[in-house]
Amino acid sequence: MDVDSCIVQYEELSQDIFKTSIWQQIPGKMVWDAWAGNAWFSGEELAEAVKEVVARNVSAEEMDALKRKGTPLENAGLLDTNREVCKTFVVSVRKATNVTVRFRSYPNSTGRTDACAIWEAARATSAAPLYFPVMTIAGEQYFDGGLTSNNPIFRVKDELEDGLNSPAPRCVVSIGTGRIDQATGERGPWKRFAKWITGGYGMVGWTLLALATDTEAKHLEILTDENNSRFRQNYYRFNVVGNIGSIGLDEWKKLPVMRKETAAYLKEEGTVKWIKECAEKLVVKK
C-alpha cells in the first residue's frame, strides 16, 4: 500500500470503529466509563476492520502461499521474508510485566521473529487506554505502547543499533500527531465535568490519555541529550502546530481540519526545506 491508499483506508476504518452507541451518547456516560476503567470502543470491531484491510491488500504472491496453507487472507503473518519491502515494527506493552515490546515484520540480528498475524500486532499497538480493551496474543495481554513510548523514536534508535547493526542511519524522519502546549490542558466541557463530578479523580484517565498522545518530550530529548548527537545528525521532525494537536483519536469528523492544517504546514518555508533535505539524503548516489 502506498501512503495515499493508507490514508483512505484509515479514514474509512475510523468511521467504522469510532461509532458511538445510543448509550454512549447519554450525557456523562463516557465520563463514567473513563472513571470505571471501561473501554469506550469495541476491540472486536477494530480487529475486524483491520482484518478487512489486510485481506484486501495481500500481495498476489502471499495470497497464493496463504491459500496453499489453507490460511484465511486476513490472518496473513506479520513476518515478511521479502527483503525488498520496508521493514516495520510497532510498539506495545506486555501487561503482565509492563515491558515494552516490538512486533517486527522482519527477523532482527538475534534471529527473533514475531509469530503473529498483522491484525493482531495492529490491534495490540492500538489498544490505547480508555479507547480499546487490551489485546491477547498467545496468552499474553498487550496494550498500546503510548504510556511508555508515545514517541518511539528511542525504540527506533535502539533497533538500529542493536537489532539491525546500523547505528548511523542515512535519514530519520519523525512525524508527530500535532503539537500541544500542556499535556493536561483543558480539552472541552466533558473534561471539566469529569473533574467536577469526581472531585478530580476522574482526571487521571484524561491525564494518562494526554501523556500517551503528546509526543514532543522525546523529540526534545533527542535534540538536547549529547548521547544522541550522532543519531540526530540526520534527524528530521515534522509536527503540525495548531488545532490538530487537540483533536482526539476518535474525532474522525475533524479529518478535514487535519487535512487543512497539514497542507498549510507542508507549504511553510522551513518544512519545504526539511523535506528537500530528506529527499536528497534518501537518494542513493551511484
TrEMBL record:
One of its GO terms (biological process) is arachidonate metabolic process. It holds the Pfam family Patatin. A motif (DGA/G) lies at residues 144-146. Keywords: Hydrolase, Lipid degradation, Lipid metabolism. GO terms for molecular function: calcium-independent phospholipase A2 activity. GO terms for cellular component: membrane. InterPro entries: Acyl_Trfase/lysoPLipase, PNPLA_dom. It comes from the Eukaryota. Residues 1-157 form the PNPLA domain. This is FabD/lysophospholipase-like protein.
